[in-house]
Design brief:
This protein has 566 residues and is mostly helical. It is 73% helix and 0% strand. Helix 7 runs antiparallel to helix 8 and helix 8 runs parallel beside helix 10.
């Protein structure tokens, strides 16, 4: 803008007469004052008033201190006009200058960004190169780790094999140590397991050097360990048998259970190896069980008969004696099963069953003669009901508990055999009762007179209100006795047999006796016929086993003594 102002000044300058600039007369003081006023009015901002005889340095020419000629005025005016134009463009010029400054800054920033991008590209390339090299290193490390794992596994297998072969000496020395307490050492069972693992390893690697020799040595160590278990267990069982107390069963059980706590780990290990069919473990286990059962028989041979005799002395009723005997031997079998489980870890086995069969044999030898000697039907019926109460649950239609203990198998078997004997004896005595008390009944004169009076006063609604034919009474009593004591088919057969005998007695002997007792009366045949009809009706009612009884005995009926030959 300064150059434009200077150009405008140069365009105005030729219009001024040079002669006026140099040869014109000076302006008057009044004109100078007017020009000064004009200059002040043209000023964009107030300034301090200059001296009256000079121009404002901001608007006046620095070379002109006072306007005296027209040329000076025009020059000054051109300068003022340029200055006013410059003031008007000052804001635009300042903004343009600011834009130029920012443009320079943007240029420098763009250069910086380009440099940063170039640096990032360099870093990215370096990173990719490092990533490629890292992947290669990682793959190499993976290969090395795989090799290291194989080497570690190989080293472990080598150490395992070396441990197998190296453990022979310490194991042999441990099992051959002197003294009787080797089995009670905490390292005994772990040493036995190490010997068995070593033997299994050698048998799996038979192509190894000296494998047969090492297999034989480890087998000898295992046999030695099992023999030590057997010797220690037999020694303990002999001690328990020598110190048995037949007077107190509770103290005997406490003493045996205390020994079971010590022997259980050893016998459990032996039991486990016996089921796995090792070379000599089965025989060793059989020898140990034989020693155990021998120890228990020493105590039971004295305790069981003595207890059975004591129970017999406490009762006079045969059914009560049998009930307590069954409860006793059932408890003995259960206790023997629990003791066996505490020693050997299982509650069943062939040895245990044979041992309990011995106990039940003593019981059977005591019970069976009493049943064979018994002749009373009611007593035999009570014995049958007692035995039915102790019958195997699934045979008596009762729900079987899960895990029914196997130690009661011998008890249930013997109870079943005794029950069969008792039922056969009851059936035989019931038939004898029918023959002797029903078929063989003979009416006396007093019974005949009572029968006649009963027939003449009988009420069809209540036939048995006053009197009843004795064979009918005995039929009713017999049916009540055998009800529920024998099988259904046997019960029906006995009932039919007794009913037929009763009706035969009524139709033959009873009717004839009644007829003879009223001989000469016009209604003798009618009385005899009425007697037969009423007694037959009562007999049919008596043959129905629907009477309430306890133990097979009709509490409302008379007890009959059947003193017939056995």
């Amino acid at each position: 803008m300064q150059s434009s102002n200077s150009q405008r000044g140069s365009e105005l300058a030729p219009r001024v007469n040079p002669l006026m600039h140099y040869g014109s007369p000076k302006l008057s003081a009044r004109r100078n004052a007017s020009l000064l006023t004009l200059a002040r009015a043209a000023s964009p901002s107030p300034r301090l008033a200059p001296r009256a005889d000079t121009l404002d340095p901001a608007y006046g020419s620095p070379e002109i201190t006072a306007i005296e000629t027209t040329a000076q005025f025009l020059e000054w005016y051109a300068h003022v006009e340029g200055r006013l134009a410059a003031d008007q463009d000052a804001e635009s010029l300042a903004f343009a200058s600011h834009l130029h400054t920012r443009l320079d800054e943007c240029t420098r920033m763009e250069e910086t960004v380009n440099k940063v991008e170039a640096a990032l590209d360099t870093l990215r390339g370096d990173y990719e190169r490092v990533g490629e090299r890292t992947g290669g290193v990682r793959m190499a490390c993976g290969v090395l780790q795989t090799r290291q794992g194989r080497l570690a596994q190989m080293a472990g297998e080598i150490n395992e094999r070396l441990d197998v072969y190296g453990s022979l000496g310490p194991i042999t020395q441990f099992f051959n140590a002197p003294g009787d307490s080797v089995c009670m050492d905490p390292e005994f069972l772990p040493s036995l397991e190490r010997a068995e693992r070593a033997l299994e390893f050698i048998e799996a690697h038979k192509d190894a050097r000296d494998s047969e020799l090492y297999a034989m040595r480890f087998a000898q160590c295992r046999s030695r360990a099992l023999t030590l278990i057997k010797m220690h267990a037999q020694r303990e069982f002999r001690r328990l048998g020598a110190q048995s107390n037949t007077n107190s069963a509770s103290s005997e059980h406490v003493r045996v259970r205390a020994a079971a706590t010590r022997l259980r780990p050893l016998l459990m290990a032996l039991q486990q190896r016996g089921t796995e069919i090792h070379t000599n473990a089965v025989q060793v286990l059989a020898d140990v069980e034989a020693s155990y059962f021998q120890m228990r028989r020493i105590w039971l041979h004295a305790h069981v008969p003595q207890s059975l005799q004591s129970i017999e002395k406490e009762h006079t009723d045969e059914a009560a004696v049998l009930r307590d005997w069954c409860a006793f031997v059932m408890g003995v079998c259960a206790d023997e099963g629990r003791l066996y489980a505490e020693f050997f870890g299982i509650s069943s086995g062939k040895g245990l069953r044979a041992h309990e069969d011995m106990v039940m044999h003593v019981f059977y030898e005591q019970v069976r003669p009493r049943i064979i000697r018994e002749a009373q039907v009611d007593v035999l019926a009570a014995l049958c009901l007692t035995l039915l109460a102790y019958q195997r649950p699934n045979e008596s239609n009762e729900p079987v508990e899960p895990g029914e203990p196997g130690e009661l198998e011998a008890f249930y078997a013997v109870v079943g055999a005794v029950l069969e004997d008792a039922q056969q004896r009851l059936a035989f005595r019931a038939q004898a009762f029918v023959r002797g008390e029903i078929t063989g009944y003979r009416m006396s004169a007093d019974d005949a007179q009572a029968a006649v009076q009963w027939i003449r006063s009988v009420d069809s609604d209540d036939l048995a209100d006053h009197w009843e034919y004795p064979p009918v009474q005995r039929l009713r009593w017999l049916v009540a006795q055998i009800s529920g004591c024998v099988d259904t088919e046997v019960q029906h057969g006995l009932t039919d047999e007794a009913l037929s005998a009763c009706k035969q007695s009524i139709a033959t002997h009873g009717a004839r006796t009644v007829r003879d007792s009223v001989r000469g009366d016009a209604d003798a045949e009618q009385l005899a016929h009425q007697f037969v009809t009423c007694s037959m009706t009562l007999a049919d009612q008596a043959a129905e086993p629907d009477q309430t009884h306890y133990g097979g005995l009709n509490t409302g009926s008379a007890r009959f003594s059947c003193d017939l030959p056995v």
